[in-house]
Batch of 3 targets.
Target 1
Amino acid sequence: MGEFDLIARYFARGAMAANPDAFGVVLGIGDDCAVLAPTPGHHWLVSADMLVEGRHFLSTVSPRRLGHKALAVNLSDLAACGASPRAFFLSLALPRADEAFLAGFSQGLFELADAHGIVLAGGDTTAGPLNINITVMGETPRGQALLRSGARADDDLWVSGTLGDARLALEVFRGTLSLPGHQFDEVRLRMELPEPRVALGRALRGLATSAIDVSDGLAGDLGHVLARSGVGATLRLADLPRSAVLGAMPQDIQQLCLLSGGDDYELVFTAPAEARERVLAAGRESATPVYRVGRIDAQPGLRVVDGAGRLIEQPLQSFDHFKS
Ligand code: ADP
Ligand code: MG
């Protein structure tokens, strides 16, 4: 199978020419460039994420889940900005034209794309070590993108969903701990099939003062918001939302997975205290649970406190459990 057959068969979905204009894509796959038409009065938001085997996914992941995850991590960036997904580009390096891989990968990719109304508008395909590079484009009304830079002292700090399960699954794969089969399946789903919080991000437009998605771990990603906003924060460890599986683990493992887990793809955001009711309504409207987990301070730095409000010293130190 040649490069053009491969694109036609698995990515152009029967139409090498025009895609409907409905999502701002006037012309999609098939020409030298895609032609896009931004909605008047809107800004385009663009983000790219590359996935490399061994670093961003394990060779044990199914092609269908990999297709899902490759797009999901990109949609998560649009979600963090409160953007509505419009178009994406897929650049692929493949060791060989493996039809079973391509069928599964494109199925997982398009299932998620269709769920979010985003159109594959182009890309590039080449032979090489497996590498998946996606660029997504979305829109917000002019000036309404959620940014990392808007957090203000006394804002509430919020988190969506639950944190830490993906890291727990990774540690099981690494062999540093073990879980009963059904619990492993549960956390493995969070690692391999993350659900980008696009609806929540959109519902937070005009409400949240700042937002970021958690891809590298809560403490680190929140640190980006604090740095860009020139503020600090106090985080209440006991209030961080976690699954029943993680909640049953030893305290130090919970702390590590919650604070520096990574691959969560939840949103962390800030909003003024007077917006509390509206934030809860945004969560309900988007069918996404949201939790108040701390406060923004004028004093720079991140402080983590326990259930009694006592400061936890060095909350990010490494843990014996994971030293193999
Ligand atoms: P060019 O040689 O001009 O770069 P290509 O032959 O690489 O064009 O691609 C032909 C068409 O197929 C272009 O519209 C391009 O965007 C699209 N395309 C190539 N690879 C992919 C892919 N993996 N997914 C989606 N579209 C692709
Ligand atoms: Mg090309």
Target 2
Amino acid sequence: MRRGLLSLAKRSVTAVAAAACFIAAANPTGPSPQVNQTGFLPQAAKWAVVHVDKALPGDDFAVVDVATGATVLQATLQPVAHWAPAGQQIRLADLSALQKTGNYRIRVAGQPDSAPFEVGGSVYATLSQGVLKAYYFSRAGMALEQRYAGVYAREAGHPDTEVLVHASAADAKRPAGSVISSPKGWYDAGDYNKYIVNSGISVSLLLAAYEHFPKVAGAWQVDIPEQGNGLPAVLNEAAWNIDWMLSMQDPADGGVYHKLTNLRFDGFVMPHVATKPRYVVQKTTAAALDFAATMAMASRVYARYETQRPGYAGQLLAAARKAFDWAEQHPQVLYVQPADVVTGQYDDQNLSDEWAWAATELWLSTQEARYRSRLDLASLPCNPPAWQDVSGMVWMSLAQHLAVLPAADAAHVRQTLRSCTQHFVADWQASAYRLALPEGAFGWGGNSVLLGQAMLLAAAHRVGGERPALDAAQSAVDYVLGRNPLGVTMVTGFGARSPRHPHHRPSQADGVDAPVPGFVVGGANPKQEDKAECPPYRADPVALAYVDDVCSYASNEVAINWNAPMVYMLAALKALTPSMD
Ligand code: 9MR
Ligand code: 9MR
């Protein structure tokens, strides 16, 4: 890959810290004990992990108050167990009994104290707002002003008011080379492109955070230009991307372009410097269906704000219907990367889950039998939501609307969520690490797979009420927030130790040492699709297959669909964990 002078300079600034720290590729194991570095709500299940490859002098752990040094909890570690994904001997510390608000560290004789963590009723407020703010930092077509963006202020990039219709998307009304306007939206990830499939699930999860937990998500305050307009911050942020998505629908036929990108990836430069021509590429069925689902859901959510956004909800629903109609006429148009385009593909061969999701959201928003008849719940799997598998989105939405479902459907939703999360709960209980590992947990974007599992567990908890489902969800979030063998909070700028060199163009090119904050990185990925472009980093054990290097798009990129389940889960944990107030 190309590394500019700037990126080399940034590397040398941090090289000393990197060498001394978890980043060293040879041995990225983090210091023990490991704990969620943000912390816990008072009544949450609280676990920490202690590595015991070297025998400990004692069997106890203590929790000490950071300010006073006082021991607030002392208890015995659980027996030694082996956790294969990290190839480590570990002992668990159960600190659930600690409910008193404060800042703490875990102390184990023979080891350094853990990173600090907090216990408190608002422990996730700052982080929630931070992971939501990452979307503002990702906005295309808008200058980020200093008063909102601080040191991350930057010029506007990619206005996308003059986008070319690619040959793959051409038709009689819009021949190849015609110019359309498709502004706004969020950059997908470390790259500057915009993809409908991934935008759909990402923005829908922000909407779901609000629809499912309005008291929590509606109260988030984020400094963004729209504040004060009467809409909650989360809905203002979501609208920036929804408005872009709307412009990706061809008004002539309702079809939706798969993506808006340049032909190849931009260099590692700031957005306004990346000025190569951009194209809308091929209309696909996946794009139409994800678009329809997103717009149908959005129409319900923004209907509450008809006064502030007159006509918006109606416009969204009409767009959803039109896209669904297009999909019915073009039921199997799969994405095929044109020969002259190399940007992200988001290509999916199996559209049964996209059909189900679009039908579900349209049905919930219209109650029309036409959409219900397209929904075969009996054959629909229940997998952690991901860009290529949105089946979980269906169950989460149906769980939210249980009260309006026909009784048989409601029973089916309850039953499915219970059965599809049962093995997660069982694996979590049996795991040495208190972590169930869904398929793909160690793969490209694995952190989001764990967070997706957490969302299904949260949905199961909502419809069934069982506490273990909530505790297992908490554990998955804990993992991403630092209770992992790397000892790293997988969110830039949060926690004592977090990624410094994400595969994220602005973070690399902005001249600011610290990365843009609030981004969830992909996480350990033994497949190492970036091997040819990175210095060697270990692939084994799998949970350590991570490198904090800008080269590593396979383990250290950021992406809107990896942040979204974190946004959702922080709302969910706050709303679902019992509270003392
Ligand atoms: O920066 C790109 C990143 O957003 C993608 O996830 C990744 C995989 O498609 O590709 C990155 O771009 C690299 C390209 O694939 C190969 N040449 C170097 C590019 C920058 O690292
Ligand atoms: O998240 C995507 C992952 O599931 C795929 O395996 C990978 C390769 O196709 O692409 C990832 O998505 C990238 C997209 O193609 C381009 N923008 C950056 C995304 C995150 O790496």
Target 3
Amino acid sequence: MKHIAILGSSGSIGTQALEVVEAHPDEFCVEVLTVNSNAELLIAQAKKFKPNAVVIVDESKYQLVKDALQNDMIKVFAGEAALEQIVQMDSINIVLTALVGYAGLKPTIAAIKAKKMIALANKETLVVAGKLITQLAQENGVNIYPVDSEHSAIFQCLAGEWENKIEKIYLTASGGPFLGKDVEFLKSVKKEQALKHPNWTMGAKITIDSATLMNKGLEVIEAKWLFNLKAEQVEVIVHPQSIIHSLVQFEDGSMKAQMGLPDMKLPIQYALGYPQRLKSIFPRFDFTKYPQLTFSQPDTKTFRNLALAYDAMRLCGNMPCVMNAANEIAVDAFLHDKIGFIEITKLIENSMNSITHIKNPSLNDYIETDKESRIKALEMLG
Ligand code: MG
């Protein structure tokens, strides 16, 4: 029986993880649930899954949650610092990090230091501080199991191949809702259009990231750290059907791919159940419904975020941290109708050009860089 802490249980990954837990009561039980501010959902989840403890980051909702759970023998904590405390609980085996953005960094570090296995859904943690996180994981004997579907695909392809060198990996990208469109079209894009992803149902931030191809950029950097690769070993290929979730090419030229219908519950279940494959009732792939699987090069001239991510990865140091912070500010501004779709890229590019590059950042440098980048990006928004 694995005892799980779910950080970010009200989000898309968090709620699907609870569906996986519910389908496998003999394999998993929930130790901890945390949310940012959705008190109602946290209360409902806590009453159903009976965790040992819950955290609500929004302190103004502490009393509401406390009162609602007072007869359920569930400990209730509030505030951001509580996340770092709670992941250290003795009874936890694995921490699913399903927080959005930079917020995932500190709790993930705390969990690794407490020697908890990590099911990583929060890709921004590895983007911001991949070197530090992977070193820390190694020192503490902690495995990081990817939940991101592309990285789960690579991880599944690597099972039994740990001794064999990777020549290259291909991360597949759906291309998002604006595949094939030009810059003129993108100038008039509204958020309602950007929030409609063709294949995956996800939270708002990642859906916008998918439309701008920044999500793929973040995933390229995530892959570099997860699988210890160089920039030139990670390639993106557009595959609009999202059936092949990614591929590994070995030194003998052989390629392995992982396939299936797009459903995040599969990579979540693989990460939590690893090394076991657990039975599922997810819909099965039907070849007759997909007579063709197609592939093309990404258009990085129109969708420049992907090119910026490669730049950030090559420069390394604190540059991916700058890019991530600027992107979080830009996406938030777009979602609040403050900037247009095309301005997202400009804001990120200007931010990357305005922050001092640090080659070997400490944790404190990352924290400072994140802060400074956000302030600069907000200034540029005016
Ligand atoms: Mg992904």
